[in-house]
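Bench log, entry 3. Co-assembly request; chain sequences pasted below exactly as received.
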Amino acid sequence: MLAIIGGTGLTQLANLDVSRRQVVRTPYGEPSGPLTFGAIRGVPVVFLARHGYGHTIPPHQVNYRANLWALKEQGAGDIVSVVSVGGIRTDLGPGRIVVPHQVIDYTCGRMNTFFENEAPVKHIDFTEPYTDELRNRLLAAAKACGEAAVDGAVYAATQGPRLETAAEIDRLERDGADIVGMTGMPEATLAREIELAYAAIAVVVNHAAGRGASVRGVPLQRIEEVLKDAVGRVRKIIEAFVAA
Ligand code: HPA
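Structure output for the full assembly:
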């Protein structure tokens, strides 16, 4: 079954025909909210709002382990994660939709593994953090519904909840990052650890600090506007993805 984790601006899926909501408890505590089960075009889908349905959980307090565990336990195999990001590359301006292919993790102090007391110690291969097959299906779905999606970007995951300084964005760019967000990690790692296929749709909601329209500060009041339009396009891509 397909699971969709909705980020900022996507606390529900308007095109999801909801059948039930379920509270799931996990060995790692509570997920961000009840899982919403339903169907899109007749295909079963489960949805979870990463920040809670009232958007009350900040990125560093999301219980990523509980979210992924709950989705897996309830039968999810594929995870499509919707995230909002700042564009570091100036061509990745507000409104662009990106399917990242790489991650650099700058987060700290988050519970970032299920492998705590394993003997012998367990490692996962994370050379390619996103599942290629899912990425390609997302890109094909975007194409099929006439939405331009950028194929590939390096996602820098920062700790937040504050935005970055201009110098930090310069550093991330030197590191090779194209977009920056606060929720991409440890979600991707945890999905890999429990063998869930995982890919992300990143919506650029602002130029990163010190770039483009954010040269003198990130215009936070504009983000909601950008999201409102972009979320409709993301829903269309998801619908095409499910229908394919
Ligand atoms: N930085 C980090 N996370 C973000 C940003 C940003 O500029 N925009 C949306 N999420």
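The radius of gyration is 17 Å. The CA atoms of residues 156 and 180 lie 5 Å apart.
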